[in-house]
Amino acid sequence: MANYFSDHPEIGFYLNHPLMKRIVDLKEKGYADKDKFDYAPVDFFDALENYKQILDITGDVAANIIEPNSESVDLEGPHLENGRMIYASKTYENLDATRKAGLWGVSMPRRYGGLNLPNAVFSMLSEMISAADAGFQNIWSLQSCIDTLYEFGSEEQRQKYIPRVCAGEGMSMDLTEPDAGSDLQRVMLKATYDAQENCWRLNGVKRFITNGDSDIHLVLARSEEGTKDGRGLSMFIYDKRQGGVNVRHIEHKLGIHGSPTCELTYKNAKAELCGSTKMGLIKYVMALMNGARLGIAAQSVGVEQEAYNEGLAYAKERQQFGDKIINFPAVYDMLSRMKAKLDAGRALLYETACYVDVYKCLEDIERDRKLTPEEKQECKTYKRLADAFTPLAKGMNSEYANQNAYDAISIHGGSGFIMEYKSQRLFRDARIFSIYEGTTQLQVVAAIRYITNGTMLQNIKEMLESEELRVKSEEFAAALLERVKKLIPVYEDALAYVKSLDNQDAQDFLARRLYDMTAELVMSLLIIRDASKAPELFEKSANVYVRMTEEDVLGKSAYIKAFQVEDLAYFKAAEEEAAE
């Protein structure tokens, strides 16, 4: 029987990440839960065994329930009845299976009914569910919104809402509006305080809300009358049981058909303030979005894996000109690149997730006691790393998912364009990944300051000197490492040249190339590190990915070094001609 965990040992490999012992020790807070809950681990090794059991259960559900339902869900999709969203019929089967398997509220502390899983393990679950059906992964993974309520809500709100999510109730984050997409400062949904009822009332419209008819909503709304920027926005909790919100429209989308995208009307809806007023966008949404971006990175890796699987399986079976097409250089070049992107992207995903875990665990500990000076520094270090790496993980993996899905269709040839083949659905599903929760262009904006101020260059140099990359000279990894080292001065020169232009438009224009080069160097070092530990899993991908990085870094460097500020006129002229 298929299992998306045991069939892909590359996922389980990351349970041995260098930071995992530290993460589990922090997450379990001295393993105190073992005296209160019979399913809590007694030590690190027991925790790992627990994780493996949960991953195995999820791999089984994903492979044998969610994936077989995926085509039916894609064809049927959700629909609207009397102001309510109704899921595709097979989606209810998926929800029932994941609830019975205990796969809800998994990141929450056990005292609320959760499993207390680290972000890295949650990402593994998310990857497998996405491989089975990216649309259902959206519905399931939005349970992570509860992390924001846990962080910023009151204890009364935690007691009220977290057990419901742990029992399988769904969530949504209601942020965007018809006139406020990426620019959330323009949100105008109105929040007014009702002193008589001792609650807030919400009025207005939200648009493009994933899982918009969920049980529990986190809502960004304007609480400060007369304001027009982010400082007037607050975060609210809306409970569907209270009423006051209807679904006006369900979008008809290119892909992820099982995931309902709704337009909502708020009419005097009763809500609770989450945290403090005026902090909704500045603090709470930023935390919410960073978590969502890591979730999209995991979703993307799942589709990268499934697209590779589909392309590989077809290439092994399809014969042309008297031979299997997998034996044609043009085809195995595509497949090797797909696998290299998958493995390198997965390495970046779990590196980032582990950074997030360390600082999030320390912040949680700080709610109970003061951190030591060493812990404070550790928290600061890993928060900075997480902030720098998250836009790389989201942006690169969402692009790789699109590329792998595109190549899977190419390998299928004309059959890939036929709706009966799965590759077309993966292609349609993947397209949104580089758009929602911040386009790739916005990930570049989020990452570029860490690139231009030298933070990422310093990270790359520290990675080169890390103990994990000190490999023996006779090992294949050492040769690959030397090749990457030769690219560092090339990257450094390109970075210095962009800064020397001293022109913001030119720097913004070239930022994407610096972003790609940075991410590819980081992923090259990560895949070399992993290949040195598990060559049977990653040696081939490391060889291919380093060659791809050489090709890209050298090419992008040449483009940058030949660029002059006046060259912007060529591109602006093209825009002007198109507008005429």
| Poorly predicted regions | none
Distance between the termini: 60 Å
- Mean pLDDT, to the nearest integer, reads 96
The H/E string reads: HHHEEHHHHHEEEEEEEHEEHHHHHHHHH
Give the strand tally.
Answer: 11
- Taken from the alpha-carbon principal axes, the silhouette is globular
Strand proportion, as a percent range, falls in 5-15%
Helix coverage percent: 55-70%
Rg, Cα atoms, Å: 24 Å
Major sheet attributes: 7 strands, mixed
Structural class: alpha+beta
The tally of helices reads 18
Plain-language structure description:
- The chain is α+β, with helices and mostly antiparallel strands.
- 59% of the residues lie in helices and 11% in strands.
- The chain has 18 helices and eleven strands.
- It has helices at 9-13, 20-28, 44-76, 89-100, 119-132, 134-141, 145-152, 155-166, 280-317, 329-366, 373-412, 422-430, 440-452, 455-464, 476-500, 504-533, 535-561, 568-579; strands at residues 79-81, 84-86, 171-174, 190-194, 199-210, 216-222, 233-239, 245-250, 261-274, 319-320, 323-324.
- The strands form three sheets. Strands 3, 4, 5, 6, 7, 8 and 9 form a seven-stranded mixed β-sheet that branches. The protein has a two-stranded antiparallel ribbon with strand order 1-2.
- The chain is globular.
- The model has no long low-confidence stretch (mean pLDDT 96).
Topology:
Elements: H1 9-13, H2 20-28, H3 44-76, E1 79-81, E2 84-86, H4 89-100, H5 119-132, H6 134-141, H7 145-152, H8 155-166, E3 171-174, E4 190-194, E5 199-210, E6 216-222, E7 233-239, E8 245-250, E9 261-274, H9 280-317, E10 319-320, E11 323-324, H10 329-366, H11 373-412, H12 422-430, H13 440-452, H14 455-464, H15 476-500, H16 504-533, H17 535-561, H18 568-579
Parallel strand pairs: 3-6
Antiparallel strand pairs: 1-2, 4-5, 5-9, 6-7, 7-9, 8-9, 10-11
Helix pairs in contact: 2-10, 3-4, 3-5, 5-6, 5-9, 6-9, 7-9, 9-10, 9-11, 9-12, 10-11, 10-16, 10-17, 11-12, 11-13, 13-16, 14-16, 15-16, 15-17, 16-17
